[in-house]
Amino acid sequence: METPSGEHRPGAVAVVGATGRQGAAVTRHLLGGGWRVRALTRDPSGLGARALQRLGAEVRRADSEDIGSLRPALAGVHGLFTVQNPMTSGLEAEVRQGRNVAQAAADAGVSHVVYGAAGVGQESTGVGSWDTKVVVAQRFRELGLPLTVLRPMAFMELMTDRGYYPAISVWHVMPRLMGESRPVGWLAVDDLGAIAARMFADPGRWVGQDLGLVADVRSIEECRGIWREVTGRAPRGVPMPTLLFERFVGTDLTTMWRWLRTEQFSMSTTRTREILPGALTVRQWLERTRGRRSADHQR
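RE: above sequence
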């Protein structure tokens, strides 16, 4: 397959979790880059799946808990983007699902896997949703699959997306445990999609790489200030005791924020901007998000 510019695409890319935040962004950018995309989802009739189908994706049913559904869904594809969500399935299920995807990809002879991970790339941080991703990535390597690991630190959507409980977690519990002035490495979900698509376009450069992705480094305190300047008001906050927050969402996030308070690791933006020079800063992302919402309200 050739793109409109004449660039050859060697085959289809399957996206596991295609209707989620990351998967949908990756699917959109792959389609925009001339790839054929096989969007894998447990519910092909859902709104998200139908939206991707309208964009040109081939939607297939597959469940990461069921390797029998993954094998035919991955048959014949060139590439694979995969991400698992421990917030909905739990940590043990995340590892189990990741291993199922790895085995099905190996059985299908996939030529390039891009894994949407997280964390700092270290083993045994004590942060469950980071440590599980090290385990899953290792399984892909054990099976001999050509692998690129993408590790965004914090998505900018944490500040606005209702699914992340921003009024409680980002503006209240997170800074209390991590520190208001502690630097955070941020990346927009859409930019993650653009970066993943670029990995598939140049596998010779990116196979074997483990990439921490950061487009902007800002503390929660700085993000509050940018929010006020862009929107003209302070972000809404809902005070909640840490123990009560943990009753709703578990202890993984609070463990993560306590770890981030003191540990040292790279948050360089250099590699991210090398891959995607136009990756958005927090201010640019917030201005764009606010402009999009204003336009939606006017329709």
